[in-house]
């Protein structure tokens, strides 16, 4: 069973190039993958290398690379290799609602002032009737901090400003051209997930806590870069020592 999705504010951006694409929404996955202690994620440059490592399943890794030791003195560890399977959204349905008294401001400048001060200046500017505004009920800076939402007390103010499209806004000692757009709120009404396998990334488990974090990471990378071990060029490697936990983030390339 899938856990409940956490509530999260999202801002959708994009350009419509074709009329038939007007009702389509393109999403870029950002998947968080829990990584337990005593494991590692290794991403190879080539898919066939990752597939070969997974097919071999168990790997014996030398722990004494760089040391001139007799064969009997060499230490080894056994690690298991497995594919990384993720659940990706295949169908996403969002119910959108237009807020008649709110506007979305885009293109806010990056200034060295507190967020509260920036919102106060925006409220002051858009509360003036000479600027086409009205009494502001509340304001909010969105996560990416280049956009803000203003909600007015009375109807008609937001629509009047949206019709302008954009306008120069006085913030501090400078004037900045801000884009004014309708403010839409939405809820996820339907979600379908499908399994997807990372083509270049392999999960290594069973790594004992016998080396420091950096030496162990170097040892794993040296081993799996060697063609004699079935490996190849390593693009990235993340190792979590025993007793620790971490979260790996997979982006659109999906490793």
Automatic annotation (TrEMBL):
Keywords associated with the record: Cytoplasm, Immunity, Innate immunity, Nucleus, Secreted
Superkingdom of origin: Eukaryota
A single GO BP: regulation of innate immune response
Residue span(s) of domain NID: 40-137, 148-235
Alphabetical list of InterPro entries matching this protein: Nmi/IFP35_dom, Nucleotide-bd_a/b_plait_sf
Main location: cytoplasm
Cellular component annotations (GO), alphabetically ordered: cytoplasm; extracellular space; nucleus
Compartmental location: Cytoplasm; Nucleus; Secreted
Family assignment from sequence similarity: Belongs to the NMI family.
UniProt name for this protein: Interferon-induced 35 kDa protein
Source species: Cuculus canorus
């Amino acid at each position: 069973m899938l856990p409940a999705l956490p509530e999260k504010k999202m801002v959708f951006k994009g350009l419509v190039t074709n009329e038939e694409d007007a009702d389509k929404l393109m999403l870029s996955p950002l998947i968080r993958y829990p990584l337990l202690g005593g494991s590692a994620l290794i991403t190879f440059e080539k898919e066939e290398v990752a597939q070969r490592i997974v097919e071999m399943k168990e790997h014996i890794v030398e722990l004494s690379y760089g040391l001139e030791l007799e064969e009997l003195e060499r230490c080894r560890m056994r690690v298991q290799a497995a594919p990384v399977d993720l659940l990706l959204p295949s169908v996403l349905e969002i119910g959108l609602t237009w807020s008649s008294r709110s506007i979305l401001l885009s293109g806010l400048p990056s200034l060295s002032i507190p967020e509260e001060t920036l919102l106060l200046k925006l409220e002051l500017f858009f509360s003036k009737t000479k600027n086409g505004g009205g009494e502001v009920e509340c304001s909010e800076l969105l996560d990416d901090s280049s956009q803000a939402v203003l909600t007015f007390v009375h109807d008609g103010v937001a629509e009047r400003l949206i019709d302008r499209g954009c306008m120069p806004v006085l913030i501090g000692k400078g004037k900045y051209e801000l884009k004014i757009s309708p403010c839409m709120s939405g809820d996820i009404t339907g979600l379908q997930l499908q399994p997807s396998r990372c083509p270049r990334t392999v999960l290594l488990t069973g790594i004992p806590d016998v080396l420091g974090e950096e030496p162990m990471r170097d040892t794993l990378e040296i081993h799996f870069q060697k063609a004699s071990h079935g490996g190849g060029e390593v693009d990235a490697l993340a190792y979590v020592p025993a007793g620790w936990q971490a979260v790996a983030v997979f982006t659109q390339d999906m490793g």
